[in-house]
Amino acid sequence: MPTWSDVLRTAAATALALSVTSCAGAGRTASGLEWADCGDGFECAELAVPLDHDRPDGEKIGISVIRLPASGERIGSLLVNPGGPGSSGVEYARSARSAVSEAVRDRFDVVGFDPRGVGGSAPVRCLPAESLDAFIGLDGSPDSPGEVTALEEGARRFAAGCQARSGRLLPYVGTADAARDMDLLRAALGDDRLTYLGKSYGTQLGAVYADLFPGRVRALVLDGAVDLSLSPLEMGAAQARGFELALDAFLADCVKAEDCPFEGSAASAREEVAALLRRADREPLKNALGDGRAIGEAWTTLGIITPLYDRESWPVLRSALAEALKGDGTTLLRLADILLDRREDGTYGNQTEASLAVTCVDSPFPADSRAYAAAARASTADAPLFGAFVAWGSLPCASWPVAGGAGEKIDALGAPPIMVVGTTRDPATPYEWSEALADQLSSGVLVGFEGDGHTAYLTGSPCVDRLVDEYLITLAVPEDGTRCPEIE
Question: Given 6, 191, 341, 426, which residue is catalytic?
């Protein structure tokens, strides 16, 4: 599922689409990258890579790249990825002045790229905007045979649309292919070894790179890690529990605030949220945007989930829930649109399509919808609000036209120390995932942050910021198991 931080931490959202276009138009040379000014101190280029890495002299696709040159004595390049899968690294790098510390920007060129299938890099496309609206609006926690059938048919239409529009790309958009692109980019940038900051799904990309090229790693920070040992449905169940934990943290904070729409305890507030979702399932909430979308349970759920990614957005969620409890779901719908990269004109970026395309090809998914139904039932025991919604969310992978990967073991044997950062109440990548990835990596070093929100670096913890900066700049490795205290 795409991450809230992937979108919100990019400040100038309307300008970012223009930056992708600028990057796509830049040229290249045989020896590396040909950079062109693309505004605000950034330079853009395009890197040609093989569509199929097993055929390096075959068809090529272009990878959109952007950099902010170092302001001081340069060590090399810092590649960054915000996660997703499906989120634009070009857009994320455009926010480098807030996403990467001044100390790191002084010593490194900050380099972002759109992974293959994403944004400006041979983007996957599946459905027109109106059809995407309908697909996303399907009841993601079906409680009748008819709703299950509608969800199954919608998932098949989505997968068929991806095959019809992007079938040539689909076998080659997996994380291992993107990691190989990243190594070609490292070489084109002139760096002997990779320095990298990956968040959320970006931790999977970084871990796979380290496993493929352990001797080419300089320093990797994997923030908000993914547990690569889990099956897809196990991962969904854990993520659903993470959203429930984050909701509980939000409600515990909300009932102390003057503008909280709930009275009484956090437990009673949770019951009101559950009742709101049941109400939206029966009868859509009001939509003042005038775009015809019915704000049913799916859009309402997405609107609630979105601001849970970032504690700074909790006041917005309080306001959105206050309106929704009165029958107006417009603000929740706007929040969901941010998560899904739906624009005011009704068009979408390709985040949703790319996310499923990468997810479905990376892992082996069940082909029988009964497996998703069973996972949904099991998940509701400890994730009653979000368990079924998350479990059914990967149903398009059941009929995906390309077989999923085998889920091979990752250990990056031979790599230098790799820093894994986890937040204890992270809604999208639960803390135990960071613990697990640090254990799986032969040189993994875990740093924990006692706090809320998705990912930890530059989200308010001076302790995490200091440890990451020192590691990236000087290669000083923190003690494994270090815990940074909660922000007061």
Answer: 426
Instruction: Describe the strand order of the beta sheet including 36-37 as a list of residue ranges.
Output: 36-37, 43-50, 60-68, 108-113, 76-81, 194-199, 217-223, 418-425, 444-452, 482-484
**pLDDT digits over 3-53, tens only?**
333 333 333 332 333 233 333 333 333 347 999 999 999 999 999 999 999
192 included as an active-site residue: no
454 a catalytic residue: yes
3-state percent breakdown (helix, strand, coil) of the chain, nearest 5: 45, 15, 35
- Catalytic residue list contains 22: no
* Under 8 Å between Cβ of 113 and 121: yes
Q: Structure pTM?
A: 0.91
Asked if 112 and 135 sit in the same domain, the reply is no
By CB neighbour count within 10 A (0-12 exposed, 13-18 middle, 19+ buried), where does 206 fall? buried
200, 369, 394, 443: the active-site residue? 200
In 3-state terms, what secondary structure has residue 128?
coil
The answer to whether position 218 is within a domain reads yes
Q: List the CATH number of the domain containing 459.
A: 3.40.50.1820
Is there a domain that residue 348 lies in? Answer: no
Tell me which residue range forms the domain holding 161.
Answer: 129-168+230-340+366-399
- Say which of 77, 181, 363, 454 is annotated catalytic: 454
